[in-house]
Amino acid sequence: MSNGLLKGKCGIVFGALNSDSIAWKAAEAIHAQEGIVVLTNAPIAMRLGELNKLSEAIDAPIIPADATNLDELNALIDGAMSHFGGKIDFILHSIGMSVNVRKGKHYTELDYDWLHKGWDVSAVSFHKVMQCVWNKDAMNEWGSILGLTYMAAQRTFPDYNDMADNKSYLESIARSFGYHWGIKNNVRVNTISQSPTPTTAGSGVKGFDGFIAYAEKMSPLGNATAEDCANYIVTMFSDLTRRVTMQNLYNDGGFSNMGVSNLVMQQFMEGEE
Ligand SMILES: NC(=O)c1ccc[n+]([C@@H]2O[C@H](COP(=O)([O-])OP(=O)(O)OC[C@H]3O[C@@H](n4cnc5c(N)ncnc54)[C@H](O)[C@@H]3O)[C@@H](O)[C@H]2O)c1
Questions:
Q1: Which of 15, 68, 104, 245 is most buried by its number of CB atoms within 10 A?
Q2: At a CB cut-off of 8 Å and minimum separation 6, what does 229 contact?
Q3: Is residue 272 very low, low, confident or very high in pLDDT (cuts 50, 70, 90)?
Q4: Quick one: which of 54, 30, 46, 34 has its CA closest to 227?
């Protein structure tokens, strides 16, 4: 159902790989609310993914860009602005990758070249995107910029590995750049901290099935799905949230404020009573 929440708004969505991706669901939800989208992903991902299907379905052009490459980012922003015929209202950074996670390196034995690559892709790219947009003065007044994160930035989930540190850095960039954007253009910058979600990136984390099931039992509302996240993203891009900025916003069914739930307790109480 459309309420036209994003009517007249234009923006860039990074990170739709396949129909499981949070960014894919977000692009669909933005389109359903009458927002205009340019899709982007790393050139290599476009070969693996199915982005053309989404592009056709929501009438959104694809402009490939490696989010760590400033030249490609600048070309993306120019291309997007020429498609929109004006400036940008919203940006979704939905990008994450750790080579150490992918290759199963233990946190106590990290490869620092891989760490550097994962940090650049998962965290610094958020700064790079914003700096390129800043230099081109490409955001409209009251625009909205979002990154996606996970609560391993606040609490320890051992198998999340160096991605936990990348997410802490990403969240800090949202606060630091959020200040400057607010002063410059009334633009807001936030991160959404999402429940574990079965996507390509999510499922790549060791023990994912265990911690998605655990989070489901710990969260009074259950895990937030990719569609729930997409709806939250729409809200954050709409004019209904204009003065929410520099925040890490939990979309996690309550997980982040739980100590223990009865459902989890039950597993440790068997045999008692
Ligand atoms: N799935 C989860 O459990 C979960 C939970 C909380 C937060 N998140 C975050 O949500 C975001 C989206 O991930 P997802 O779960 O939808 O998985 P996904 O695998 O569908 O998306 C990750 C995307 O990052 C893109 N990417 C990687 N390197 C890139 C580069 N150099 N340049 C541009 N794009 C690049 C990939 O191509 C892919 O499209 C990530 O930031 C992730 O950390 C995921």
A1: 15
A2: 22, 25, 26, 148, 192, 194, 197, 251
A3: low
A4: 30
- Is pLDDT at 147 greater than 90 in this prediction? yes
Q: What percent of the chain has pLDDT over 70?
A: 98
Closest C-alpha to ligand 1, atom 11: 94
Instruction: Residue 261: name the closest of 253, 272, 250 by CA.
Output: 253
What does pTM read for this prediction? 0.97
Predicted confidence at residue 273, as pLDDT, reads 57
- Ligand 1 pocket check for 11: Cβ under 6 Å: no
Ligand 1 pocket test, pick from 20, 22, 150 with the greatest ligand atom count within 8 Å of Cβ, gives 22
To test the ligand 1 pocket, which listed residue (21, 44, 117, 256) has its Cβ within 8 A of the most ligand atoms?
21
190-227 as b/e, with b when 16 or more CB fall inside 10 Å?
Answer: bbbbbbbbebebbeebeebeebbebbbbbbeebbbbbe
Q: Which atom of ligand 1 approaches the CA of 151 most closely?
A: 6
| Through-space distance between the first and last CA atoms of the chain, rounded to whole angstroms | 49
- Gap from CA of 5 to ligand 1 centroid (Å): 25
d(CA 143, CA 21): 23
97 lines ligand 1 (CB under 6 A): yes
- Give 95 Cα–ligand 1 centroid separation in angstroms: 4
Average pLDDT taken over every residue of the chain: 96
What the chain holds in terms of domains, given with CATH numbers, is 10-268 (3.40.50.720)
What digits encode the pLDDT tens for the residues 204-253? 888 888 889 999 999 999 999 999 999 999 999 999 999 999 999 999 99
- Per residue in 101-127, pLDDT tens? 999 999 999 999 999 999 999 999 999
Token pair, residue 191, equals 């991160």
